[in-house]
Write a structure and sequence with these properties.
The chain is α+β, with helices and mostly antiparallel strands. It contains 5 helices and 7 strands. The protein is about 45% helix and about 20% strand.
Length: about 220
């Protein structure tokens, strides 16, 4: 029997350690203009190459690359948080509920343990761990199901709903986990969509991780 891979490729390299904790972001198709994404990615790749040429200590390089990746995703997320074009289907409560139910269903069926999720108008943040299948297969299933159901509701059956890439980031420490949880939960607070993360109807935090919540 063919084994499921632990390392896979699309536009970004992905590695799934057995006990990994992952911070995920996935977005609607067309939510960002392609030239903007390509420019952002090109700058990110150039910066990575610069770091590799100037830092020779392996630990220092690994830390610098993680910081650069965080900066890259921060810029990427800032563009999503202030959409000037593209669809915002997830701002429709019924559509957001479809996505929330798809995320929670896989948690309840033990495909992963869910730490938190936050659903914005055009993208979703999610943290999970104890992943029982290859993560990319779980996300394929989650996105396929939610896209089908959302498109039925929106009367746009057969049209592309999600962008094909899911951006994943391996979390390396409890401190980093806390920062990611707070960042994700504060996503709707930053642009003034709500005053407190608990007021956002489509955010969830597993009670086991309450100590990491924004104060």
């Amino acid at each position: 029997m063919k084994k499921d891979p632990t390392h896979y490729h699309r536009n970004l390299p992905h590695f799934q350690p057995k006990d990994g904790v992952f911070n995920l972001c996935f977005r609607l198709a067309g939510s960002l203009p392609k030239p903007v994404i390509e420019e952002l990615r090109e700058r990110h790749l150039q910066k990575k190459e610069e770091l590799k040429k100037t830092i020779f200590d392996e630990d220092e390089l690994a830390f610098a690359l993680r910081e650069e990746r965080d900066l890259y995703f921060g810029k990427f997320d800032a563009l999503l948080d202030d959409p000037t074009s593209g669809p915002t289907f997830l701002a429709i409560p019924e559509v957001a509920e479809i996505v929330a139910e798809a995320i929670l269903h896989r948690h309840e069926n033990s495909q992963y343990k869910l730490v938190q999720y936050t659903i914005m108008s055009n993208h979703v943040h999610m943290i999970c761990y104890k992943i029982q299948r290859p993560l990319f297969r779980i996300m394929q299933s989650l996105k396929s199901y939610s896209a089908t159901q959302a498109n039925i509701f929106l009367d746009r059956v057969g049209k592309t709903f999600w962008h094909n890439e899911t951006y994943d980031n391996l979390i390396h420490s409890r401190g980093e986990l806390g920062r990611k949880i707070r960042y994700n939960l504060n996503n709707p607070v930053k642009p003034g969509l709500c005053q407190n993360w608990k007021d956002w109807p489509f955010s969830f935090l597993n009670p086991e991780f309450e100590k990491y919540a924004p104060r």
